[in-house]
Amino acid sequence: MKKVMVAMSGGVDSSVTAALLKEKGYDVVGGTMHTFPDYEQPTDREDHCCSYSAVMDAKRVASKLDIPHYVFNLKDVFQKEIIDYFVDEYKNARTPNPCVMCNKTIKFAALLDKAREIGCDFIATGHYAKIERNEQGRYLLQRAVDQEKDQTYMLYVLDQRQLSHTLMPLGNYTKDEIREIAKEKGFLVHNKPDSQEICFVPDNNYVRFLEMNYPNATEPGPILDQEGNKVGEHDGLAYYTIGQRRGLGVAMGYPIYVVELDKKKNAVIIGEDDAIYKDGLIAKDLNWISITELNEEMEVLAQIRYNSQPIPATIKPIEDDHVKVVFADKQRAVTPGQAVVFYKEDLVVGGGIIEKSINL
Predict the structure, then answer these.
(1) φ, ψ of residue 339 in degrees (nearest 5)
(2) Region class of 61: left (phi > 0), else alpha (psi between -120 and 50), else beta
(3) DSSP one-letter code for 107
(4) What is the pLDDT of residue 50?
(5) So which residues are the catalytic ones?
(6) pTM of this prediction?
(7) What pLDDT is attached to residue 47?
(8) How far apart are CA 325 and CA 341, in angstroms?
(9) Mean pLDDT over each residue of the chain, to the nearest integer
(10) Do 69 and 6 form a contact (C-beta atoms < 8 A)?
(11) What is the distance between the alpha carbons of residues 21 and 6, in angstroms, rounded to a whole number?
């Protein structure tokens, strides 16, 4: 009998994952991560994972399923790999994606190692995605049946070892079906809200988080127009994002937007709406799933943020293990620090981190 540890967040998805795998005959144990730093006290909001109430919800489900449940202290590695990264990205005028990095270094790395230490063959999660193995023995990642809940954008960082030891049984279900299964099984979490925002920022105010815990992460500087003229002052680059219109505190007589965050000048660059649209981007820190490497130009669908639709694009390798991405149509607010993920229909080809936007 194969043994699997389900990463239980206390939510409906991971709870049903545990139930489904037990029904399939797996030897199931539950595992919940303790990740919050000492200086940040988590709230008991139902839509936040890793809070005390979330741990208790996971324990109640595990008890109902009659499976063991463990809580793993991953505070130190979480601080190093996620929170320090989060702060450094804002220091360098980029917009971080902590959920992607958490999947890469915590859930499917540190937690997987814990699972292997206690004799588990697999780790399982409540992600909406599908893992397949092709005839050549390569593990593939595919979009879920429920396209609205699909989470492959956040999972493109997984390598072949991680995929080979991971189960994602929810890929063939819709969210409504999962809630119904949870209700039928008597799980009190069947109508629990989905977790939202950044887990280690309980009030969803990342600026407050930086100000309270990392006051040197950002500092005031100039707001410049695209010709380099100073038109105002900003409170810190972390307060702004590409495409932002509100809260700039500058009146130009026409609508203006954040076009660029210039780390070297510590400047917010503003311009009109058409300046936000870009022909493409350069991506780094690449991970390939359906292929071993990119050797030539390829037509793909490219997704540049979690809640956006993939759009036709051409990708080709360039120097220093980077990829140049050219969109079929200009895209708005291409944001350095965010992920770009490449698809062939529902199959994840791979992805990387946006280094910069480009115009041809």
Answers:
(1) -90, 150
(2) alpha
(3) I
(4) 57
(5) 102, 199
(6) 0.93
(7) 46
(8) 11
(9) 92
(10) no
(11) 9
Closest by Cα among 198, 215, 194, 217 to 206: 198
User: At 346, which helix (H) or strand (E)?
Assistant: none
- DSSP E strands: which ranges in 108-175? 122-124, 129-133, 139-143, 166-167
For the stretch 191-244, pLDDT in tens is 887 776 688 887 788 888 898 889 888 899 999 999 999 999 999 999 999 999
- Taking only Cα atoms into account, the Rg of the chain, rounded to an integer number of angstroms, comes to 22
CA distances from 82 to 100, 122, 291 (A): 10, 23, 27
- Rounded to whole angstroms, the Cα distance separating 128 from 351 reads 18
Res. 38 pLDDT band, cuts 50 70 90:
low
- Helix runs in the chain, H state only: 12-23, 52-65, 75-78, 84-91, 98-102, 111-117, 160-164, 175-184, 206-213
What structural domains does the chain harbor? 3-191 (3.40.50.620), 218-271 (2.30.30.280), 276-358 (2.40.30.10)
Take residue 23 and report the two structure tokens written for it. 């029904």
What pLDDT score does 330 carry? 97
